[in-house]
Design a protein that fits this description.
seven-stranded mixed beta sheet; 3 domains
Length: 314
Amino acid sequence: MIEEIASQWAAGLDRGILPAERVQLDAWLAEDRRHRGALLRAQAAMSMLDRCRVLAGAEEDETANDDTPPARAAFPFARRRLLALGGSGIAAALIGALSFNLWPRATTLGTDTGEIRRVPLADGSLAVINSASELRVSFTANRRDVQLTRGEAWFQVAKMPDRPFTVTAGPVNVQAVGTAFSVRRRNGATVVVVTEGTVKVWSGRETDSAFVTAGQSAVISDAGVKVAALESETVDRQLAWRDGRIVFEDVPLAQAAAEFNGYHAMQVVVDPVFADKSVVGSFQTDDIEGFASASAAMVGGRVVHDGNVIRVVP
């Protein structure tokens, strides 16, 4: 039922929805943390079908007449049929059948500063890649390996028990069969947040692994693996970037500015007097001016523009 509703919303978003429908969609997404993943899978399925259609030379022509060849008409029909059927299993099977030969076995996927990409993978999984990040994807008949060389990504993994899905970030390994989780490399540590299912993490010997379940995070560093439970609101804040937002809850301004700076060439520089002052709020990742102005007001400062720098000063 969730997948069917998600497919209907994906179709609506594809054609455009009204403000009232957007309110209904936001409410549905807030009901259950599984809803967002289901919607992303449905959108990924649509995206992959479109890509297959283009690669097969079947791009639709808006001026096509009744003589349109069957090969060109097949993909729009398949797209509509997929949305009518719904279901992640159907989407994964279709994506796998159509796309495996369209992907090289080793592929590099990256984002520029400020860019967030949703990329359907050849096995039916989905990767959402954060700003200034890079993945190297290598799939074989027996394994699914992804190397996170920098930045952060969230994965919705297609269930294939005989082909483990492993993300490597430096010395850290995160392995899943069918689940959803994010991996982030930052300040010499790797942070894993699990939103669905269970993953296994280890650094060095696999025999020293730990299991992390939905609603938990793991910080892996030289000090070892530290697993902690997270409130659902905390998970939502940490992964809000997938929707182009950054959410702060009593975060020191210097830390908040560093987080925002990762999405922009323009940078926010905070006067030391305000560095430890806390800020709160939800901001669009592309609105650095709004973030700087609102934060300055919260801490009792003001904004000064200096070339490609926005300064928060007394």
